[in-house]
Amino acid sequence: MICLFVIVFIAELIILYHLIMFLYNTDKAVCMLTEQIDKSRMKLKWRMTALTEISEGINEIIPNLIVKAKKTRKNLIIRFINQGLQSIILLFFKPKYKKFLLGMKTGMGVLRKLLRV
Fold first, then answer.
1. CA 6, CA 15: separation in Å to the nearest integer?
2. Alpha-carbon distance 11 to 95, whole Å?
3. DSSP secondary structure string, 22-83?
4. For 1, how many CA atoms within 13 A lie in the half-sphere containing its CB?
5. What is the pLDDT of residue 117?
6. How far apart (Å, rounded) are the C-alpha atoms in residues 21 and 16?
7. What pLDDT is attached to residue 88?
8. Quick check: 90 and 98 in contact, CB under 8 A?
9. Splitting the chain (117 residues) into consecutive groups of 10 residues, what average pLDDT does each group show?
């Protein structure tokens, strides 16, 4: 009978040992996952901060780009109208004045480009 009690007691000790080892390993795994989650949380926080800064920068830049685009559009429309009117005026002048006007127009264009540089 004592032998049976000893066998049952040893079996209970083995089961207790395996149970404690399982709990210990599970605790280590949970601690590692918690540490990894904390690192990921810090990375996420940094990325969210960077994303916020980028979006704020874009919100500052876009209105300036829109204003520049409107100015460019106005300038292009004015240039197109100017070129069209000059072409229409050249059609109605006599041939001897056309050469002079074309020379003036070409000279003004060259001067503008040289003065920009």
1. 14
2. 120
3. HHHHHHHHHHHHHHHHHHHHHHHHHHHHHHHHHHHHHHHHHHHHHHHHHHHHHHHHHHHHHH
4. 0
5. 53
6. 9
7. 76
8. yes
9. 88 95 96 94 93 90 91 88 77 69 78 73
